[in-house]
Design brief:
alpha/beta, Rossmann fold, 2 domains, five-stranded parallel sheet, four-stranded parallel sheet, 41% helix, binds phosphoric acid mono(formamide)ester, binds norvaline
Length: 308
């Protein structure tokens, strides 16, 4: 493919339609079931995925790398430190070169503008593996996990307790697209900015000062670290600002009795979540982490082959 303007990318959650998500979730379920039965599913033989990491990762790297090999393809892994990306080669030049050699690119980086610049010069699809603003692959896996446990997420309520960060922004995009409501509770100064989240209206979310109120009646309670990657200099200020935004058993008690708890991980027990909650009966964090593999295999298949 040589016309860069015709290539479809997955840079934010809103890059796929509700109908396409329904397809990807169905494929993820099929791919997962084959994986569990030790049956081969190799539609991507001879395809190569470049993984570019400018921030640390465990789940994203393992799920994309293992997923691509399992589908018959191969992977090239690059980091800022061991490539020319860390030595100021222009992002546009890197995009032109890398995308002539591989079929698909995943990038984890800082500003969304960086991944957009790469995508604008890429001959092949680019997937967002986390930026400061968004983490669409995680929400893809989270919603797939919700569907597995509770059925459709449409009409349900998701309580977000904590930072107005990349995860919160992506939940908001998903709520607008898939028809559920987000109850947001963030400390003052760490609110979600609707324009950064990239949503059209405030219809799909409600803001609560008190995290207990956000959790009341929720079908899913979720949170994330107080300090995201790239914001480490703010650690001390965040520690005091976020002290009351720890998901505890009391918050889970006011949610629906069958509410699930999710966390994208890595987690800090005793900070954003009590150990009793993340290690308790309502937590589905291990299914959620595993589902990164199955959901992203379905996503890569869709990006490279379309609807199969
Ligand atoms: N949740 C997530 O993206 O984890 P990693 O940072 O380990 O990739
Ligand atoms: N919000 C976190 C998510 C880590 C997977 C971060 O950006 O560091």
């Amino acid at each position: 493919m040589s016309d860069t303007s015709r290539v479809r990318h997955y840079l934010q959650f809103s890059d796929l339609s509700a109908d396409e998500y329904a397809h990807v979730f169905a494929r993820a379920a099929f791919i997962k079931q084959r994986f569990k039965a030790y049956e081969k599913h190799q539609p991507l033989v001879d395809r190569t995925l470049a993984l570019i990491f400018e921030k640390a990762s465990t789940r994203t790297r393992v799920s994309f790398e293992a997923g691509m090999y399992q589908m018959g393809g191969s992977v090239v892994h690059l980091t800022t430190g061991d490539s020319q990306l860390g030595r100021a080669e222009p992002i546009e030049d890197s995009a032109k070169v890398i995308s002539r050699m591989v079929d698909l690119v995943m990038i984890r980086t800082f500003e969304q503008t960086k991944i957009e610049a790469f995508a604008a010069h890429s001959r092949v699809p680019v997937i967002n593996g986390l930026t400061n603003e968004f983490h669409p692959c995680q929400i893809l896996a989270d919603i797939f996990t919700f569907i597995e446990h509770r059925g459709s997420i449409a009409g349900k309520t998701v309580a977000w307790v904590g930072d107005g960060n990349n995860m919160a922004n992506t939940w908001l995009q998903a709520s607008e697209l898939l028809g559920f409501t987000v109850h947001l509770s963030t400390p003052s100064g760490y609110e979600v900015d609707q324009s950064v989240a990239g949503i059209r209206s405030a219809d799909s979310y409600k803001v609560f000062k008190d995290p207990m109120d956000a959790c009341r009646g929720a079908d899913l309670v979720t949170t994330d670290v107080w300090t995201s990657m790239g914001y480490e200099a703010e650690n001390d200020a965040r520690r005091s600002a976020f002290a009351d935004w720890c998901v505890d058993e009391e918050m889970m008690r006011v949610a629906r009795p069958d509410a699930l708890f999710m966390h994208c991980l890595p987690a800090h027990r005793g900070e954003e979540v009590q150990a009793e909650v993340i290690d308790g009966p309502q937590s589905v964090v291990w299914d959620e982490a595993e589902n990164r593999l199955h959901a992203q295999k379905a996503l890569m298949e869709f990006m490279l082959l379309g609807r199969v």
